[in-house]
Amino acid sequence: MSAYVAVLIRVIAFIVLAPLLGGLLSGIDRKITARMQGRKGPSVLQPFYDVIKLINKETLSIGRMQYLYMFCFLAFIIFTGSCFFAGLDILLVFFVLTTAVMFFVLAASFPNSPFSRMGAMRELAQMLAYEPMVLLAAVGFYKATGTFAVNDIARQDVSAIIYLPGIFIGFVYILTIKFRKSPFDISTSHHAHQEMVKGITTELSGGMFAILEISHWYENIMLLGVVALFVINSHWWSIPLAILVCFIVYFIEILIDNTSARVKWKLMLSSAWAVTFILGTVNLLILQYLF
Amino acid sequence: MAKISKSPWLLHYDGSSCNGCDIEVLACLTPVYDVERFGIINTGNPKHADILLITGGINTQNKQVVEQIYSQMPNPKVVVAVGICACNGGVFKDCYNILGGADKVIPVDVYVPGCAARPESIIDGVVKALDILEKKREV
């Protein structure tokens, strides 16, 4: 019984705390970015001000289906994160994450806007680029620990990263795509230097854009949770270590964002697949034949 | 409840400007003036924007463009005319193709004079626009 209560507490903690942590992380991201560019930067609470403003603004939409798609996007992101923090099967987590992103693509394809649709197409290209690595990560966890269950992966005596250094680096590589950071921010960008208005988010205004922001906060926390899963083991000290690794990874993503220019989708796809093939597959082969 | 003025997102449209004011608008985003410290973001999308910054006068070709951009912005919204050309046509006022300032086609809330308008006065104009934005939200 107490095991169920513990799971319930973890899920509720995720649903309540993830948007707060995710928003704060996004604020810290903007502050660090500004400091890297020699600016003062906005308050760390700025993402919350933005979302509250968006909720209070008028929402322009051509149909109610778009609301439904955006709501499903948020709901599935929350569901996938809840599954992850409840310690369920990591394959389920990754598949539901894919479903959630598909709803986002549907929401962007729904209005007859060329920019929005172009963004949706690019989002699909991004999925094509990162999905193989995400699946290889799940396979890698299985090879290293003998289970797909997040709970059991986190209770091994040795951190998974010891067996999966290649897959870890590959996962961090595709995180740049998932976090929508330059050079792979091709479907939309936080900044105005976008060649197709705002890409996939062009047709989202007011409340719907707020839903998107909140979904991203949940998604980012969940993805950092996967990063943490590489480090966490049965010892207590692995938890602060995992949090430290998450911060280092996020800092590296910000650094890459600020030092690189956006690439074309073909280069994104080929480089992501090359990294997946070289680091992921070789890592798996070594695990298969040497251990 | 946080105020809308804590997160104003700008849309910059260049009418028939000489680009002097546009360079000054972009200068506001640089480390020297850094308007992002007020939460201001320069967005490229009218559907995300709260403030429309117009530089340069209105001519017969961009009249529909300005009207359309304005109509695509969700309420509440404000318009800031930056530079003397956007205020009343400036030195181009008597040209055959110039209709006049931005207020010939859409309601303008704040006029920022100057040729070119200084970044300080642009920021001042935007801050004035924020008060108007707040009042519009309350209505």
What does this structure look like?
By secondary structure, chain A is an all-alpha fold. Chain A has one domain (2-290). Helices cover 75% and strands 0% of the residues of chain A. Chain A has 11 helices and no strands. The longest helix of chain A has 35 residues, at 2-36. Chain A is globular, with a radius of gyration of 19 Å. The mean pLDDT of chain A is 89. Chain B is α/β, with parallel strands linked by helices and 139 residues long. Chain B has a single domain, classed as Rossmann fold. Chain B is built from 4 helices and 7 strands, in the order βαβββαβαββα. Chain B has a 5-stranded parallel beta sheet. Chain B has a two-stranded antiparallel sheet with strand order 4-6. In chain B, helix 1 links the parallel strand 1 and strand 2. The mean pLDDT of chain B is 88. Classes of the chains: A mainly alpha (291), B alpha/beta (139). The interface between A and B is medium-sized, with 32 and 24 residues.
Structure summary:
The complex is a heterodimer of chains A (291) and B (139). Chain A is mostly helical.
Summarize the topology.
The complex is a heterodimer of chains A (291) and B (139).
Chain A: H1 2-36, H2 46-56, H3 64-86, H4 90-109, H5 114-145, H6 150-153, H7 160-163, H8 165-178, H9 206-231, H10 238-259, H11 265-290
Helix pairs in contact in A: 1-3, 1-9, 1-10, 2-9, 3-4, 3-9, 4-5, 5-8, 5-11, 8-9, 8-11, 9-10
Chain B: E1 9-14, H1 20-27, E2 41-42, E3 51-55, E4 58-59, H2 63-72, E5 78-82, H3 84-88, E6 98-100, E7 110-112, H4 119-138
Parallel strand pairs in B: 1-2, 1-3, 3-5, 5-7
Antiparallel strand pairs in B: 4-6
Indicate the overall shape of chain B: globular
- Whole-angstrom Rg of chain B: 14 Å
Principal-axis shape of chain A equals globular
Give unreliable regions of chain A as ranges: none
Total helical segments of chain B? 4
Largest sheet geometry of chain B: 5 strands, parallel
Q: Ranges of chain B with pLDDT <50 over ≥5 residues?
A: none
The assigned structural class of chain B equals alpha/beta
Greatest interface by residues involved? A-B, 32 and 24 residues
Q: How helix-rich are the residues of chain B, as a percent range?
A: 25-40%
Terminal Cα separation of chain A, in Å?
37 Å
Q: Enumerate the strands of the largest sheet of chain B in spatial order, edge to edge or round the barrel.
A: 2-1-3-5-7
Q: Determine the number of helices of chain A (DSSP H or I, runs of at least 4 residues).
A: 11
Mean pLDDT of chain A: 89
Compute the number of strand runs of chain A: 0
- Let me know the largest β-sheet of chain A: none
- Count of distinct structural domains of chain B: 1
Taken in chain order, the helices and strands of chain B follow as EHEEEHEHEEH
Helicity of chain A, as a percent range: over 70%
